[in-house]
Protein backbone atom coordinates (compact mmCIF):
# COMPACT_ATOMS: atom_id res chain seq x y z
CA UNK A 1 0.00 0.00 0.00
CA UNK A 2 1.52 3.34 -1.03
CA UNK A 3 1.19 6.56 0.91
CA UNK A 4 0.62 9.68 -1.16
CA UNK A 5 0.83 13.20 0.12
CA UNK A 6 -1.88 15.56 -1.09
CA UNK A 7 -1.91 19.25 -0.47
CA UNK A 8 -4.50 21.74 0.19
CA UNK A 9 -4.77 24.86 -1.92
CA UNK A 10 -3.39 27.06 0.94
CA UNK A 11 -0.05 25.25 1.61
CA UNK A 12 3.38 25.97 0.06
CA UNK A 13 4.75 22.52 -0.80
CA UNK A 14 8.28 23.76 -1.63
CA UNK A 15 9.09 24.35 2.08
CA UNK A 16 8.32 20.76 2.91
CA UNK A 17 10.82 17.96 2.52
CA UNK A 18 9.48 15.37 0.08
CA UNK A 19 11.48 12.50 1.74
CA UNK A 20 9.92 12.87 5.15
CA UNK A 21 6.38 12.14 6.27
CA UNK A 22 5.22 15.39 7.70
CA UNK A 23 2.15 16.01 9.72
CA UNK A 24 1.29 19.65 10.02
CA UNK A 25 -0.94 21.11 12.61
CA UNK A 26 -4.34 21.97 11.18
CA UNK A 27 -4.25 18.89 8.83
CA UNK A 28 -2.51 20.68 5.99
CA UNK A 29 -1.28 17.35 4.56
CA UNK A 30 -3.48 14.33 4.51
CA UNK A 31 -2.39 10.72 4.17
CA UNK A 32 -4.47 9.00 1.49
CA UNK A 33 -4.14 5.27 1.00
CA UNK A 34 -4.51 4.08 -2.58
CA UNK A 35 -4.51 0.58 -3.89
CA UNK A 36 -1.28 -0.53 -5.57
CA UNK A 37 -1.20 -0.26 -9.30
CA UNK A 38 -0.23 -3.10 -11.56
CA UNK A 39 2.86 -1.39 -12.96
CA UNK A 40 4.09 -0.01 -9.65
CA UNK A 41 3.52 3.58 -10.71
CA UNK A 42 2.36 6.11 -8.18
CA UNK A 43 -0.08 7.99 -10.49
CA UNK A 44 -3.73 7.90 -9.49
CA UNK A 45 -5.99 6.98 -12.37
CA UNK A 46 -9.57 8.27 -12.14
CA UNK A 47 -12.28 5.65 -11.95
CA UNK A 48 -14.45 5.76 -15.05
CA UNK A 49 -18.21 5.31 -14.79
CA UNK A 50 -19.76 2.70 -17.05
CA UNK A 51 -21.32 4.10 -20.16
CA UNK A 52 -25.14 4.11 -20.23
CA UNK A 53 -26.75 2.96 -23.42
CA UNK A 54 -29.26 5.46 -24.85
CA UNK A 55 -32.94 4.56 -24.51
CA UNK A 56 -34.45 3.20 -27.68
CA UNK A 57 -36.72 5.69 -29.39
CA UNK A 58 -39.93 4.78 -31.19
CA UNK A 59 -39.82 5.31 -34.87
CA UNK A 60 -41.85 8.31 -35.85
CA UNK A 61 -44.86 7.66 -37.99
CA UNK A 62 -44.93 9.45 -41.24
CA UNK A 63 -47.45 12.30 -41.30
CA UNK A 64 -50.84 11.21 -42.66
CA UNK A 65 -51.64 12.28 -46.08
CA UNK A 66 -54.67 14.42 -46.97
CA UNK A 67 -56.76 11.42 -48.04
CA UNK A 68 -56.39 9.70 -44.67
CA UNK A 69 -57.33 12.86 -42.83
CA UNK A 70 -60.39 13.27 -45.03
CA UNK A 71 -61.49 9.67 -44.41
CA UNK A 72 -61.16 10.08 -40.64
CA UNK A 73 -63.05 13.36 -40.74
CA UNK A 74 -65.90 11.86 -42.78
CA UNK A 75 -66.10 8.83 -40.49
CA UNK A 76 -66.32 10.96 -37.37
CA UNK A 77 -68.94 13.20 -38.99
CA UNK A 78 -71.08 10.21 -40.02
CA UNK A 79 -70.83 8.71 -36.54
CA UNK A 80 -71.85 12.02 -34.93
CA UNK A 81 -74.79 12.37 -37.31
CA UNK A 82 -75.97 8.82 -36.61
CA UNK A 83 -75.74 9.30 -32.85
CA UNK A 84 -77.61 12.60 -33.06
CA UNK A 85 -80.24 11.04 -35.31
CA UNK A 86 -80.73 8.14 -32.90
CA UNK A 87 -81.10 10.49 -29.93
CA UNK A 88 -83.51 12.69 -31.85
CA UNK A 89 -85.55 9.69 -32.95
CA UNK A 90 -85.70 8.40 -29.40
CA UNK A 91 -86.84 11.82 -28.17
CA UNK A 92 -89.45 12.13 -30.94
CA UNK A 93 -90.88 8.66 -30.31
CA UNK A 94 -91.06 9.40 -26.58
CA UNK A 95 -92.81 12.70 -27.26
CA UNK A 96 -95.33 11.09 -29.60
CA UNK A 97 -96.12 8.31 -27.14
CA UNK A 98 -96.42 10.84 -24.33
CA UNK A 99 -98.91 12.91 -26.32
CA UNK A 100 -100.82 10.03 -27.92
CA UNK A 101 -101.09 7.90 -24.78
CA UNK A 102 -100.45 10.36 -21.96
CA UNK A 103 -102.81 13.05 -23.29
CA UNK A 104 -106.01 10.96 -23.38
CA UNK A 105 -105.01 9.24 -20.15
CA UNK A 106 -104.53 12.59 -18.42
CA UNK A 107 -107.98 13.71 -19.58
CA UNK A 108 -109.48 10.43 -18.36
CA UNK A 109 -107.85 10.79 -14.93
CA UNK A 110 -109.03 14.40 -14.64
CA UNK A 111 -112.54 13.34 -15.65
CA UNK A 112 -112.61 10.65 -12.96
CA UNK A 113 -111.36 13.18 -10.43
CA UNK A 114 -114.02 15.71 -11.40
CA UNK A 115 -116.90 13.32 -10.70
CA UNK A 116 -115.45 12.24 -7.31
CA UNK A 117 -116.39 14.33 -4.26
CA UNK A 118 -113.53 16.27 -2.63
CA UNK A 119 -111.17 15.02 -5.32
CA UNK A 120 -113.01 17.27 -7.80
CA UNK A 121 -111.69 20.35 -5.99
CA UNK A 122 -108.12 19.03 -6.24
CA UNK A 123 -108.68 18.33 -9.93
CA UNK A 124 -110.02 21.84 -10.42
CA UNK A 125 -106.92 23.12 -8.63
CA UNK A 126 -104.71 21.14 -11.02
CA UNK A 127 -106.44 22.74 -14.02
CA UNK A 128 -105.89 26.18 -12.49
CA UNK A 129 -102.27 25.31 -11.71
CA UNK A 130 -101.67 24.57 -15.39
CA UNK A 131 -102.61 28.16 -16.20
CA UNK A 132 -100.75 29.63 -13.24
CA UNK A 133 -97.59 27.61 -13.84
CA UNK A 134 -97.30 28.80 -17.43
CA UNK A 135 -97.97 32.37 -16.28
CA UNK A 136 -95.20 32.17 -13.66
CA UNK A 137 -92.52 30.47 -15.71
CA UNK A 138 -93.42 31.65 -19.20
CA UNK A 139 -92.81 28.10 -20.47
CA UNK A 140 -95.60 26.35 -22.33
CA UNK A 141 -94.21 22.92 -21.51
CA UNK A 142 -95.25 23.44 -17.89
CA UNK A 143 -98.72 22.34 -18.93
CA UNK A 144 -97.37 19.06 -20.32
CA UNK A 145 -95.13 18.05 -17.44
CA UNK A 146 -97.45 15.26 -16.27
CA UNK A 147 -98.04 13.61 -19.63
CA UNK A 148 -95.34 11.02 -18.97
CA UNK A 149 -96.77 10.35 -15.53
CA UNK A 150 -100.20 9.87 -17.08
CA UNK A 151 -98.69 7.42 -19.56
CA UNK A 152 -97.12 5.52 -16.69
CA UNK A 153 -100.50 5.52 -14.96
CA UNK A 154 -102.04 4.00 -18.08
CA UNK A 155 -99.45 1.24 -18.28
CA UNK A 156 -99.78 0.76 -14.51
CA UNK A 157 -103.52 0.27 -14.85
CA UNK A 158 -103.00 -2.29 -17.62
CA UNK A 159 -100.44 -4.16 -15.52
CA UNK A 160 -102.70 -4.02 -12.46
CA UNK A 161 -105.63 -5.40 -14.45
CA UNK A 162 -103.43 -8.24 -15.72
CA UNK A 163 -102.09 -8.96 -12.21
CA UNK A 164 -105.56 -9.10 -10.67
CA UNK A 165 -107.07 -11.00 -13.59
CA UNK A 166 -106.57 -14.48 -12.04
CA UNK A 167 -108.16 -13.33 -8.78
CA UNK A 168 -111.15 -11.95 -10.68
CA UNK A 169 -111.50 -15.20 -12.64
CA UNK A 170 -111.54 -17.28 -9.45
CA UNK A 171 -114.01 -14.81 -7.95
CA UNK A 172 -116.40 -15.38 -10.88
CA UNK A 173 -116.09 -19.13 -10.28
CA UNK A 174 -116.94 -18.51 -6.63
CA UNK A 175 -120.04 -16.53 -7.59
CA UNK A 176 -121.17 -19.17 -10.10
CA UNK A 177 -120.56 -21.92 -7.57
CA UNK A 178 -122.96 -20.21 -5.19
CA UNK A 179 -125.70 -20.79 -7.72
CA UNK A 180 -124.74 -24.22 -9.02
CA UNK A 181 -123.08 -26.07 -6.14
CA UNK A 182 -122.84 -24.34 -2.75
CA UNK A 183 -120.66 -26.07 -0.20
CA UNK A 184 -117.11 -26.42 1.02
CA UNK A 185 -115.61 -26.09 -2.46
CA UNK A 186 -117.12 -22.63 -2.73
CA UNK A 187 -115.22 -21.54 0.39
CA UNK A 188 -111.97 -22.80 -1.11
CA UNK A 189 -112.65 -20.74 -4.20
CA UNK A 190 -113.17 -17.67 -2.04
CA UNK A 191 -109.93 -18.36 -0.19
CA UNK A 192 -108.07 -18.84 -3.47
CA UNK A 193 -109.44 -15.59 -4.89
CA UNK A 194 -108.35 -13.74 -1.76
CA UNK A 195 -104.85 -15.26 -1.90
CA UNK A 196 -104.47 -14.43 -5.60
CA UNK A 197 -105.63 -10.88 -4.94
CA UNK A 198 -103.02 -10.47 -2.19
CA UNK A 199 -100.27 -11.85 -4.41
CA UNK A 200 -101.38 -9.66 -7.32
CA UNK A 201 -101.43 -6.50 -5.21
CA UNK A 202 -97.99 -7.32 -3.79
CA UNK A 203 -96.69 -7.81 -7.33
CA UNK A 204 -98.17 -4.46 -8.38
CA UNK A 205 -96.65 -2.71 -5.36
CA UNK A 206 -93.18 -4.18 -6.06
CA UNK A 207 -93.39 -3.27 -9.74
CA UNK A 208 -94.36 0.31 -8.98
CA UNK A 209 -91.62 0.59 -6.36
CA UNK A 210 -88.94 -0.89 -8.62
CA UNK A 211 -89.71 0.47 -12.10
CA UNK A 212 -92.51 3.00 -11.45
CA UNK A 213 -95.13 0.83 -13.10
CA UNK A 214 -93.49 0.13 -16.47
CA UNK A 215 -95.47 -2.37 -18.49
CA UNK A 216 -92.60 -4.81 -19.12
CA UNK A 217 -91.81 -4.93 -15.40
CA UNK A 218 -95.17 -6.57 -14.75
CA UNK A 219 -93.98 -9.53 -16.81
CA UNK A 220 -90.96 -10.16 -14.54
CA UNK A 221 -92.29 -11.06 -11.09
CA UNK A 222 -89.15 -13.00 -10.14
CA UNK A 223 -86.95 -9.94 -10.69
CA UNK A 224 -89.18 -7.96 -8.37
CA UNK A 225 -88.76 -10.53 -5.61
CA UNK A 226 -84.97 -10.60 -6.12
CA UNK A 227 -84.88 -6.80 -6.05
CA UNK A 228 -86.82 -6.77 -2.80
CA UNK A 229 -84.46 -9.30 -1.22
CA UNK A 230 -81.35 -7.40 -2.30
CA UNK A 231 -82.85 -4.14 -1.09
CA UNK A 232 -83.58 -5.59 2.34
CA UNK A 233 -80.16 -7.25 2.54
CA UNK A 234 -78.24 -4.06 1.66
CA UNK A 235 -80.26 -1.38 3.46
CA UNK A 236 -82.58 -3.23 5.78
CA UNK A 237 -86.37 -3.44 5.76
CA UNK A 238 -86.99 0.07 7.02
CA UNK A 239 -84.41 2.02 5.01
CA UNK A 240 -84.77 -0.09 1.88
CA UNK A 241 -88.54 -0.59 1.66
CA UNK A 242 -90.63 1.22 4.24
CA UNK A 243 -88.96 4.65 4.05
CA UNK A 244 -89.22 4.93 0.22
CA UNK A 245 -92.89 3.94 0.40
CA UNK A 246 -93.48 6.54 3.11
CA UNK A 247 -91.65 9.21 1.10
CA UNK A 248 -93.72 8.43 -1.99
CA UNK A 249 -96.93 8.58 0.04
CA UNK A 250 -95.94 11.91 1.58
CA UNK A 251 -95.07 13.37 -1.83
CA UNK A 252 -98.41 12.22 -3.26
CA UNK A 253 -100.33 13.65 -0.32
CA UNK A 254 -98.47 16.96 -0.59
CA UNK A 255 -99.33 17.17 -4.30
CA UNK A 256 -102.99 16.43 -3.57
CA UNK A 257 -103.09 18.89 -0.67
CA UNK A 258 -101.57 21.74 -2.70
CA UNK A 259 -104.02 21.25 -5.56
CA UNK A 260 -106.92 20.89 -3.16
CA UNK A 261 -106.09 24.18 -1.44
CA UNK A 262 -105.67 25.97 -4.77
CA UNK A 263 -108.88 24.48 -6.14
CA UNK A 264 -110.84 25.46 -3.05
CA UNK A 265 -109.64 29.07 -3.21
CA UNK A 266 -110.24 29.23 -6.96
CA UNK A 267 -113.74 27.81 -6.56
CA UNK A 268 -114.65 30.28 -3.81
CA UNK A 269 -113.27 33.26 -5.77
CA UNK A 270 -115.14 32.22 -8.92
CA UNK A 271 -118.33 31.62 -6.95
CA UNK A 272 -118.12 35.12 -5.46
CA UNK A 273 -117.70 36.62 -8.92
CA UNK A 274 -120.71 34.72 -10.31
CA UNK A 275 -123.02 34.94 -7.30
CA UNK A 276 -124.44 38.44 -8.07
CA UNK A 277 -125.08 37.38 -11.67
CA UNK A 278 -126.88 34.22 -10.58
CA UNK A 279 -128.97 36.09 -7.99
CA UNK A 280 -130.08 38.72 -10.50
CA UNK A 281 -130.96 36.15 -13.15
CA UNK A 282 -132.86 34.07 -10.63
CA UNK A 283 -134.95 37.17 -9.86
CA UNK A 284 -136.49 36.98 -13.32
CA UNK A 285 -139.54 35.37 -11.76
CA UNK A 286 -140.05 38.55 -9.78
CA UNK A 287 -139.28 41.07 -12.52
CA UNK A 288 -137.77 40.77 -16.01
CA UNK A 289 -135.55 43.70 -15.14
CA UNK A 290 -133.48 41.50 -12.85
CA UNK A 291 -132.82 39.15 -15.76
CA UNK A 292 -131.71 42.07 -17.91
CA UNK A 293 -129.38 43.36 -15.19
CA UNK A 294 -127.89 39.92 -14.66
CA UNK A 295 -127.36 39.47 -18.39
CA UNK A 296 -125.62 42.82 -18.69
CA UNK A 297 -123.45 42.12 -15.64
CA UNK A 298 -122.41 38.72 -17.00
CA UNK A 299 -120.64 40.34 -19.98
CA UNK A 300 -117.78 42.01 -18.03
CA UNK A 301 -117.64 39.11 -15.58
CA UNK A 302 -117.11 36.64 -18.42
CA UNK A 303 -114.30 38.81 -19.76
CA UNK A 304 -112.53 39.39 -16.45
CA UNK A 305 -113.00 36.07 -14.67
CA UNK A 306 -110.51 33.95 -16.73
CA UNK A 307 -107.83 36.58 -16.09
CA UNK A 308 -108.70 36.64 -12.37
CA UNK A 309 -108.37 32.87 -12.15
CA UNK A 310 -105.02 32.95 -13.94
CA UNK A 311 -103.64 35.65 -11.62
CA UNK A 312 -104.85 33.81 -8.51
CA UNK A 313 -103.12 30.61 -9.62
CA UNK A 314 -99.92 32.35 -10.79
CA UNK A 315 -99.42 34.53 -7.72
CA UNK A 316 -100.92 31.99 -5.26
CA UNK A 317 -102.82 34.84 -3.66
CA UNK A 318 -106.58 34.91 -3.09
CA UNK A 319 -106.86 38.70 -3.29
CA UNK A 320 -105.24 38.69 -6.75
CA UNK A 321 -108.63 37.70 -8.17
CA UNK A 322 -110.32 40.84 -6.79
CA UNK A 323 -108.13 43.64 -8.12
CA UNK A 324 -110.06 45.12 -11.07
CA UNK A 325 -107.44 47.74 -11.94
CA UNK A 326 -104.62 45.20 -12.05
CA UNK A 327 -106.82 42.82 -14.02
CA UNK A 328 -107.52 45.53 -16.58
CA UNK A 329 -103.81 46.34 -16.85
CA UNK A 330 -102.97 42.68 -17.30
CA UNK A 331 -105.52 42.41 -20.09
CA UNK A 332 -104.18 45.58 -21.75
CA UNK A 333 -100.67 44.13 -22.04
CA UNK A 334 -101.73 41.02 -24.02
CA UNK A 335 -105.29 41.63 -25.25
CA UNK A 336 -105.21 39.43 -28.35
CA UNK A 337 -104.15 36.27 -26.52
CA UNK A 338 -106.65 36.86 -23.74
CA UNK A 339 -109.46 37.37 -26.27
CA UNK A 340 -108.58 34.09 -28.00
CA UNK A 341 -108.44 32.17 -24.72
CA UNK A 342 -111.74 33.62 -23.48
CA UNK A 343 -113.47 32.83 -26.77
CA UNK A 344 -112.16 29.26 -26.61
CA UNK A 345 -113.33 28.81 -23.01
CA UNK A 346 -116.85 30.08 -23.72
CA UNK A 347 -117.30 28.09 -26.91
CA UNK A 348 -116.08 24.90 -25.23
CA UNK A 349 -118.63 25.34 -22.42
CA UNK A 350 -121.69 25.69 -24.68
CA UNK A 351 -122.10 21.97 -25.57
CA UNK A 352 -122.33 21.14 -21.87
CA UNK A 353 -125.80 22.68 -21.70
CA UNK A 354 -127.09 20.09 -24.18
CA UNK A 355 -126.30 17.33 -21.69
CA UNK A 356 -128.34 19.11 -19.01
CA UNK A 357 -131.66 18.81 -20.83
CA UNK A 358 -132.23 15.55 -18.98
CA UNK A 359 -130.60 14.08 -15.90
CA UNK A 360 -127.88 11.61 -16.77
CA UNK A 361 -128.69 8.07 -15.58
CA UNK A 362 -125.23 6.98 -14.41
CA UNK A 363 -122.03 8.56 -13.17
CA UNK A 364 -120.14 6.87 -16.03
CA UNK A 365 -121.91 9.13 -18.50
CA UNK A 366 -120.98 12.14 -16.38
CA UNK A 367 -117.31 11.05 -16.37
CA UNK A 368 -117.37 10.50 -20.14
CA UNK A 369 -118.81 13.95 -20.80
CA UNK A 370 -116.43 15.53 -18.29
CA UNK A 371 -113.47 13.92 -20.05
CA UNK A 372 -114.67 15.26 -23.38
CA UNK A 373 -115.02 18.75 -21.94
CA UNK A 374 -111.61 18.61 -20.22
CA UNK A 375 -110.01 17.69 -23.55
CA UNK A 376 -111.67 20.74 -25.09
CA UNK A 377 -110.96 23.26 -22.33
CA UNK A 378 -107.35 22.39 -21.45
CA UNK A 379 -105.91 24.11 -24.57
CA UNK A 380 -107.73 27.31 -23.57
CA UNK A 381 -106.12 27.13 -20.12
CA UNK A 382 -102.71 26.76 -21.75
CA UNK A 383 -103.44 29.77 -23.92
CA UNK A 384 -104.59 31.82 -20.91
CA UNK A 385 -101.37 31.00 -19.06
CA UNK A 386 -99.31 31.99 -22.08
CA UNK A 387 -101.18 35.28 -22.30
CA UNK A 388 -100.50 35.95 -18.62
CA UNK A 389 -96.80 35.23 -19.13
CA UNK A 390 -96.65 37.65 -22.05
CA UNK A 391 -98.45 40.31 -20.01
CA UNK A 392 -96.07 39.88 -17.05
CA UNK A 393 -93.02 40.43 -19.28
CA UNK A 394 -94.35 43.57 -20.93
CA UNK A 395 -94.22 46.92 -19.16
CA UNK A 396 -96.32 48.98 -21.56
CA UNK A 397 -99.91 48.64 -22.69
CA UNK A 398 -100.79 47.37 -26.14
CA UNK A 399 -101.94 49.88 -28.76
CA UNK A 400 -105.50 51.19 -28.62
CA UNK A 401 -106.53 49.15 -31.65
CA UNK A 402 -105.68 45.82 -30.01
CA UNK A 403 -107.17 46.76 -26.65
CA UNK A 404 -110.57 48.03 -27.79
CA UNK A 405 -111.18 47.32 -31.48
CA UNK A 406 -109.99 43.72 -31.79
CA UNK A 407 -112.04 42.51 -28.78
CA UNK A 408 -115.18 43.63 -30.61
CA UNK A 409 -114.85 40.46 -32.63
CA UNK A 410 -115.55 38.59 -29.40
CA UNK A 411 -118.97 40.22 -29.08
CA UNK A 412 -120.93 37.48 -30.94
CA UNK A 413 -119.40 34.76 -28.77
CA UNK A 414 -120.07 36.72 -25.57
CA UNK A 415 -123.66 37.48 -26.52
CA UNK A 416 -124.40 33.91 -27.54
CA UNK A 417 -122.94 32.58 -24.29
CA UNK A 418 -124.80 35.18 -22.17
CA UNK A 419 -128.16 34.43 -23.75
CA UNK A 420 -127.57 30.68 -23.44
CA UNK A 421 -126.94 31.09 -19.72
CA UNK A 422 -129.86 33.49 -19.28
CA UNK A 423 -132.42 31.19 -20.87
CA UNK A 424 -130.90 27.90 -19.69
CA UNK A 425 -133.46 27.52 -16.84
CA UNK A 426 -136.11 26.96 -19.52
CA UNK A 427 -134.37 23.94 -21.05
CA UNK A 428 -132.18 22.30 -18.37
CA UNK A 429 -133.53 19.91 -15.77
CA UNK A 430 -132.12 21.71 -12.66
CA UNK A 431 -134.13 24.81 -13.54
CA UNK A 432 -133.19 28.06 -11.83
CA UNK A 433 -130.59 26.35 -9.63
CA UNK A 434 -128.58 25.62 -12.77
CA UNK A 435 -127.74 29.30 -13.19
CA UNK A 436 -124.71 28.90 -10.92
CA UNK A 437 -123.38 25.94 -12.96
CA UNK A 438 -121.00 27.89 -15.18
CA UNK A 439 -118.97 25.07 -16.66
CA UNK A 440 -116.48 27.47 -18.23
CA UNK A 441 -115.41 28.85 -14.85
CA UNK A 442 -116.49 26.47 -12.08
CA UNK A 443 -116.21 22.69 -12.01
CA UNK A 444 -116.41 21.53 -15.64
CA UNK A 445 -119.00 18.81 -15.10
CA UNK A 446 -122.65 18.58 -16.26
CA UNK A 447 -124.17 18.79 -12.78
Keywords:
447 residues; mainly alpha; flat
Order of helices and strands: EEHHHHHHHHHHH
Strand content: under 5%
> Could you tell me how far the N terminus lies from the C terminus, measured between alpha carbons in angstroms?
126 Å
- Write down the Rg: 43 Å
Helix content: 55-70%
Question: Could you give the count of β-strands?
Answer: 2
Average of per-residue pLDDT values? 78
Oligomer: single chain
Report the total helices. Answer: 11
Report the biggest beta sheet as strand number plus sense, adding barrel if it closes: 2 strands, antiparallel
The stretches of 5 or more residues where confidence is low (pLDDT under 50) are: 1-34, 37-42
Describe the model.
By secondary structure, the protein is mainly alpha-helical. The chain has a domain at 273-436. The chain is built from eleven helices and two strands. The protein has helices spanning 66-114, 119-137, 147-180, 184-211, 221-282, 288-315, 324-333, 335-349, 363-393, 400-405, 411-422; strands at 2-7, 29-34. A two-stranded antiparallel sheet has the order 1-2. α1 runs antiparallel to α2 (119-137), α2 packs across α6 (288-315) and α6 packs across α8. Residues 1-34 and 37-42 have low confidence and may be disordered.
Task: Give a quick rundown of the structure.
By secondary structure, the chain is mostly helical. Helices cover 66% and strands 3% of the residues.
Amino acid sequence: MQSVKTRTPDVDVESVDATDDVELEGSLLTDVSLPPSDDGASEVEPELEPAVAPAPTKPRRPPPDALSQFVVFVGEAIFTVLVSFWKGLHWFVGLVTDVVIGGPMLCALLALGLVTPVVNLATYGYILDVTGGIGRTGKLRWGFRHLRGAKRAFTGLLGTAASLGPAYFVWTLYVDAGVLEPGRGRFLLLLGAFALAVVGLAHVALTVARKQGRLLSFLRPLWNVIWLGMRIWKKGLRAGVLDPIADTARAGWSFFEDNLWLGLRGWVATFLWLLPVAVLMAGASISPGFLALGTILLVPVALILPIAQARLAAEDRFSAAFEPIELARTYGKAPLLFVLSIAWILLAALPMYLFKVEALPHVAFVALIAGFFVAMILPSKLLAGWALARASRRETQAPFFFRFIVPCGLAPVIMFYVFTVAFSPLIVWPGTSGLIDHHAFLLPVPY
